[in-house]
Amino acid sequence: MSRRIGLLFLTVAALLLSACGKESSWEEEEIVEESNRIITDDVKVNWELEKNQASGKSDLIRISVTNKGEPMDDFEVNHEKLLHLIVVSKDLSYFNHIHPEYKGDGVFEIENEFPAGGEYRMIADFKPTNGHSISKMDWVTVEGEAAQGVAVKVDDRLEKKVDGMNVVLSVEPGLETGKEVTLKFTVSEGDGKEPVTDLEPYLGSIGHVVVLSEDGERYLHVHALEEQGSGPEALFETEFPQSGVYKVWGQFQRDGEVVTVPYVVEVP
Ligand SMILES: [Cu+2]
Hints:
Blueprint: H1 2-17, H2 23-33, E1 43-51, E2 59-67, E3 70-71, E4 75-76, E5 83-89, E6 95-98, E7 101-104, E8 107-112, E9 118-128, E10 134-142, E11 159-162, E12 165-172, E13 180-189, E14 194-195, E15 208-213, E16 223-224, E17 233-239, E18 244-254, E19 257-267
The structure holds copper (II) ion (CU).
Signal peptide: 1-19
Keywords: Signal
Protein name: YtkA-like
């Protein structure tokens, strides 16, 4: 508190000294007043990988979160977890959504078996107490020989078969940029395409959707519409910032198992 008052005093003193008081000085005062809130830019994430020496197959991912250089220790449970980690290979062929264990002092850890070495997109989603949801991402290099990349190919039909289920994706009113659109997944099963109506809640909603641009640089914010049942439809909203190719991963839970359904769309 005394530091706050000190800063405020300096601000006022600067204003008085500058003779022609500019309004900008008062804007600074506002920043001082908000100093207890967590600002996204102050939050940094450091990524470390450590090869599991015993098996040689997996890597320990260590995520260290800091706020203004100090370990950040206040996380709020968001969608049932303290931190959500999305791991995607550079060519977008590999996708994993996992929940690292909190070790205290802003550090989260989890073992992951990467299919090959090379660069991976890592995205951490979390919500500090007294702050908004934050997404931090980075390219992280995994030791070992990199796989030959697979080209991202736009799907002709947005209908996929996974674990005996057919999942059709439609985008309403259509694939457009700069406008909120609805991603509608319709789940059915069998040759008769019987509607699936027993989807289970996954992370507190009907499912989870991740959208990344082809180059892995853009991670879109997607949210499930509220009050949804258990299928056959699952609705999400997002906005494509610009034209291009995007990969969409829909995740749904049934019989305790999570299925991941990938699509590639081109936004004109
Ligand atoms: Cu998650």
